[in-house]
Amino acid sequence: MNYRHAFHAGNFADLVKHAAVLALVRRLTGDPSPLLVIDTHAGAGLYDLEDAEQARSKEAEAGVKRLMGGQTPPPFAALREAVERRNPDGGVRWYPGSPSLIVEALRPGDRYVGCELREDEHGRLAALLARTGKTAEARRGDGYEAARELSRGPGRRLLLIDPPFERADDYLRTAETLGAVLKADPRAAALVWLPLKDLETLDGFARRLEALRLPRALVAEARLRPLHDPMKMNGCALVAVNPPDGFEAELEAICAFVVEALGAPGGRAKLWRL
Questions:
Q1: Dist. CA 177–CA 239, nearest whole Å
Q2: How far apart are CA 212 and CA 155, in angstroms?
């Protein structure tokens, strides 16, 4: 499965991921000490929903465009405001990715490192971050390796792992990287996004995480339809490690709304602990 950010920008999975990212960063920046955010698969950071790729996929039509066209529940208020700031003339042409949302929410003294392998997307990410005036770096290279490197040393960290799942070993490398970072910094917070295709893949990944003996971890699922067809993205899940107090309830509400508003019969939201 190829989950390139630009092709799927603004779809239901982005709503889940980005509402959760904003809630998590808001809670973590409530602590006065500086925060380092490591984004292993950053993408370009801002997407034109009128681009040809989006016109072909039309996934934003059933995602952010439906969200912006109706009543917004509290867990999505910050995301809606972020989208409105980027579309001052109305409509939903420009959609912010995780780098844009995170950096905007960081304080002076915090730091963001976004990693991207694709040359074209890295170039757009670097230009975007340069305009923010924040301490933000676009690093071209392997995000898994960068996360291990940046896990050493003092300070608080948030690790965001959001692979495109182009490679057969993305599930394995995600688990290995998460384990390595938490071994170096057991207090680090982490948020992992993954598509939900079939139960076998989800269960296999969960077993890998259980073997890591994570300190505190929960899984939030937004299944838009039953996991019967492994060729489709039937939903998405987030794994939160060392979540701050209060985040669990927000995560549960985020998944529940997306399933209720955008799901098909047989869909469901579920939250469970590893």
A1: 14
A2: 23
The CATH architecture assigned to 5-228+243-273 reads 3-Layer(aba) Sandwich (3.40)
- Phi/psi of residue 232, nearest 5 degrees: -115, 155
For residues 171 and 115, give the distance between their C-alpha atoms in angstroms, rounded to a whole number: 18
With b for 16 or more beta-carbon neighbours within 10 A and e for fewer, the 134-161 pattern comes to bbbebbeeebbebbbebbeeeebbbbbb
| pLDDT-wise least confident of 5-14, 103-112, 117-126, 264-273 | 5-14
Q: Are the C-beta atoms of residues 25 and 79 closer than 8 Å to each other?
A: no
Q: Give Cα 60 distance to the centre of its chain.
A: 16
Q: Cβ–Cβ contacts within 10 Å for residue 15, how many?
A: 25
- The CB density around residue 73, as the number of other CB atoms within 10 Å, is 17
Grouping H, G, I as helix, E, B as strand and the rest as coil, residue 230 is coil
Cα–Cα distance for residue pair 239/274, rounded to 1 Å: 9
Phi, psi of 78 (to 5 degrees): -65, -40
192-236 per-position pLDDT tens digit: 999 999 999 999 999 999 999 998 999 999 999 998 888 888 999
Q: At what angle do helices 247-262 and 12-28 cross, to 10 degrees?
A: 160
Distance (Å, rounded) from C-alpha 23 to C-alpha 21? 5
Residue 131 CA, chain-centre distance (Å), reads 22
Please give the biggest Cα pair distance in the chain. 50
